[in-house]
């Protein structure tokens, strides 16, 4: 699948800490609309952003939930998958919302049933709800199932990701977030050109200091976001929607420097490398 590159600013809105900063950005444009979250639809601002993307209330929208990423993570399993699918706390925040209809799209099953069956299901859905787990595993099955090839033909569809369900759209997730043992590396789809460090200050190891170290290894633009923050991408425009806290790390970074963005020009020319589209086939 190919994506056109379009220049776009980052717009910071709805955040009490937002200063209205704008940054030159590039996004690999795909027709599907993106709402990339850390913890789901956790506050009114993120909910409003979802409704804006849908163009109608959630109660008038049909949803398909995708639990596939969970199977690739050792901390997930049958109980958490059932919790997400059935809307049971703490896993089912998005699936417990008021939807017109809610179904399950298990990507590992799609290659065995034929596109003539599942493609109409996806085309009829207003929103795809991708749960967390391991982003490299989700990336593998998005490719193996053919779903990734369908996305450019879905201009009215919204993709809402939680954690790994968001990270799969980025170029790289960083080695720290790879839990699937068969993953060849940390590369994912690269639909957007920035990476995401989720659950900022939610878990003990997800600190800002860890996010800065992670961003230095990523070597590309990246966001650290907490569970009250989402990144909305539509028509090539990136917008941060937050009632919590987040940080944008500049594009140029190098593991030999203390902070992302402070590398001298000679290092930027050598270290600011964005990997090609990847993930296990």
Note the main attributes of this structure.
single chain; 281 residues; alpha/beta; 9-stranded mixed beta sheet; 3-stranded mixed beta sheet; 8 helices; 24% helix; 22% strand; disordered N terminus
Question: Could you give a short description of this structure?
Answer:
The protein is 24% helix and 22% strand. With 281 residues, it is of the alpha/beta class.
Question: How would you characterize the overall build of this protein?
Answer:
- The protein is of the alpha/beta class and 281 residues long.
- Helix content is 24%, strand content 22%.
- The chain contains 8 helices and 12 strands.
- The strands form 2 sheets. Strands 2-1-11-10-3-7-6-4-5 form a 9-stranded mixed beta sheet, sandwiched between helices. Strands 8-9-12 form a 3-stranded mixed beta sheet, covered by helices on one side.
- Strand 8, helix 7 (208-218) and strand 9 (222-225) form a beta-alpha-beta unit.
- The model is unreliable at 1-26 and 252-277 (pLDDT under 50).
